[in-house]
Amino acid sequence: MVRTNFYSQKTHHYDGIILRLRKGYSRQLSLTIFTRQAGLLPFLVPKGKKGYNQGFGSLVELSVVTFEGYERQGSHFITEYESHGSSLLADLSWDRYVYTQVFTEMVLALVPPEAPDDSTYNLILRYIEAIAARNVRVATIIAGWQLTACAGFQPDTETVCVYRYPGEAPDGQIRYYFSDHDEENMPPVPVSGPVRRLWQALIDYDWQHAAPMQLPRKDLALLEQLLYSYVEDVSGKDLKCRKALLD
Q1: How does pLDDT run across 73-84, given as a tens digit for each residue?
Q2: Is the dihedral of CA 60, 62, 66, 67 positive or negative?
Q3: Distance, CA of 142 to CA of 155 (rounded, Å)
Q4: Domains in the chain and their CATH numbers?
């Protein structure tokens, strides 16, 4: 729906999820929002004398927000909004909070801007619901692998070959890379049949109707490290919050 606000700007209605929030210059909030209507977009929220425009609720990361917005000279602005924010992130321990930031980084690394996708939008919603009720680490690993599928990068869990880069990265992390065929003079990392079946089960996981899963600790730890390496590999971007998991 297109409307016209007081300043004669054409506004559009959006439903979105706040992924990043930063306080910028000139009394503005800078938000990165994945919207159902237009995909991933940056928005600015100017601050007036009575706060951030005509808003209801708190603007916080990983909150659902409905709002009116307009574009001017290449920038997007929010006018009226209603945020369904909660104290979810504030109530998490530091370790659990870091996992939510890793998930956000994976979304920003894999999802192109201005590319609406209902599967991705709904996955982020399921993740927000899950971290309030489930193990945040497990939810992040499951959602991360499902995110690779939404983004078109789903690996063939039955046949893909996994290799380890020699040495360690400067941040102390082990890095893996993936190939569809055997690398000459390079032994692959052994990935057992049960691990590969668990890998596919995470990708196929139904957040609303799934039966309890057996998650062997070592298998889950390997799939977690493979996830971060895979996202970095296919996106070409480092996951900066990954290092915080070691601290």
Answers
A1: 889 999 889 998
A2: positive
A3: 14
A4: 2-84 (2.40.50.140), 94-245 (1.20.1440.120)
